[in-house]
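Model it.
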Amino acid sequence: MKMIGHKALITTLMVFVLAMCGCKGKTEAEETPEAEIQTEESVSGGEAHRNDFAGAWTDKNTGAMLDIWRSEDGVFHALACIKSSDTEVSYWSFTAPAEDGKLVYTDCERIDAVYGSNGQISETTVYERGIGSVEFSGDDLVWHDATDNAGDGLVFVYEGGY
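Modeled.
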């Protein structure tokens, strides 16, 4: 398996998340025929995600996204995405083991990206080694970002697993 650098991985993930549906913000919902709608039970086994951080999560009010996956060594990797305009998105990436029912991180990197009309992406690293945590509040996740309070007021709802 080819290893890529941390920054290259983040850039690749940012482009993927933005392209797939991440950080859309609030837009008018497209109608889905009822036959195509999958319930949480059919996607994830219902309560299967409870107390398992891995999956795609979306904030109830802003559309901010939090994608979490677990590596083979049990460490969780997360990418949070908050869109501030049609062309500006901030990304936070961090890793953390699960400890006492929460993810506590000390390696968060925040990157602000501007997507140009010509397809170019301009990135600015705002900080590295940010600290914070992610934990359950009922079935939802809350993000406590202690470096710049980016997660204040965000409540992430489970959208599905990987």
